[in-house]
Design brief:
single chain, elongated, about 110 residues, mainly alpha
């Protein structure tokens, strides 16, 4: 039943658009966080460690949106190459998120 629904090209297009929109939301969040960090950096009331920790937390949040978008896009992947590419991207993003979380804890 689900496979029959996914073969409908309109549904596939809608899912792809939703996935891409979620991905852009995550990217916009990361870009906004970088802009805010650059704005705070020269201010005397913020030190470098506070800015770095805040930026890392916001990047992790944005990465969660991007990973969710990749999972959505993987549901409509047409061949094994697309699935492997998306799987590799998700794996890299998860490892990046883990490294950022570890850095925040230290």
């Amino acid at each position: 039943m689900i496979r029959e629904l996914l073969q409908n090209s309109t549904l596939i297009s809608i899912i792809q658009v939703i996935g891409i929109m979620i991905e852009y939301i995550g990217l916009a969040f990361v870009a906004g966080a970088v802009c805010i960090a650059l704005f705070k950096l020269p201010m005397k009331e913020y030190n470098m460690e506070e800015v770095r920790a805040g930026l890392a937390k916001k990047i992790i949040f944005g990465l969660e949106f991007i990973i969710a978008a990749d999972i959505i896009l993987a549901t409509v992947a047409t061949d094994i190459g697309d699935i492997l590419r998306l799987g590799g991207i998700v794996l890299i993003r998860i490892m990046l998120g883990y490294a950022l979380r570890k850095e925040i804890m230290e």
